[in-house]
Amino acid sequence: MYEFLFDNGMTREEYHFFLGNRIKQHCILGNDYYLTNEHRVSADGHTVAAGDVFGYDEITRQYYNRYRIPIMHTETNMVEGPTGEEAVNWLWKEWANVLRLRNVGIPTVGFTWYSLTDQTDWDTALREVNGNVHKVGLYDLDRNIRPVGRAYKQLIKDWGTVLPAQSVCLVLPVVPPSHYDNAAQREQAADARVTMAASRAIHQARVGD
Questions:
Q1: Which of 24, 100, 141, 200 gets the highest tally of CB atoms within 10 A of its CB?
Q2: 50-70, pLDDT tens digit by residue?
Q3: Over the stretch 37-46, which tens digit does the pLDDT of each residue have?
């Protein structure tokens, strides 16, 4: 790795900066997962999309075991098919993968459906202007909500009051250590502790009910 970094432009000053500054605790590992992520490699080196073989949770578990930092499911989507349920089913499957990671103790801080609206010319990676609409948004380009958008709203409604009490977001460092003595940062930290305590109390009360 040392030789790779220097072969690709890293300076001695940059190298020693990263050696001397522990920044891992400020990092989140964001990884995407689409139906085309996994590939089968043939003997001659040719690759072809293999579909959903291992899945997001198993692949992300391997990443976490290597890097040991909080993770985030940063992108996923599925084209809306003839029934409109294809994207909905994919959403719930990916969400189940995220919950599985959390349930085995892997700190997971976010989940994103990409994108909010349909995309244009994404089939050619924006290299050509063809006006082709890629129907993967929570809303179409006229801002009409798609079935997957309604499912996403339901997901937030169902889980929005549960996950904050379990979230690690409020305890992740969000400022450099050099700013920890700043009065505003101390106040932010105190507010976070109060919020977390209140969330735990609410969660425990619900469990008790």
A1: 100
A2: 999 999 999 999 999 999 988
A3: 999 999 999 9
Q: What is each CA distance from 137 to 3, 56, 115, 120, 132, in whole angstroms? A: 42, 20, 5, 11, 14
* Cα(114)–Cα(47) distance, integer angstroms: 25
CA distances, 160 to each of 16, 31, 72, 138 (Å): 42, 22, 17, 18
Domain 25-159: which topology? Answer: TIM Barrel (3.20.20)
Identity of residue 198: A
- Alpha carbons within 13 angstroms on the beta-carbon side of residue 1 total 1
Stretches where the chain sits below pLDDT 70 are 164-181, 183-186, 188-189, 191-193, 195-200, 202-209
Cis, bond preceding 178 (omega within 30 deg of 0): no
Antiparallel, parallel or unpaired: β 29-32 and 71-75? parallel
Radius of gyration over every alpha carbon of the chain, rounded to an integer in angstroms: 21
Pairwise CA distance, residues 174 & 172, whole Å: 6
pTM for the full predicted model: 0.74
Residues in CB range of 127: below 8 A, 6 or more apart: 121
Output phi, psi for 90, to 5 deg.
-65, -40
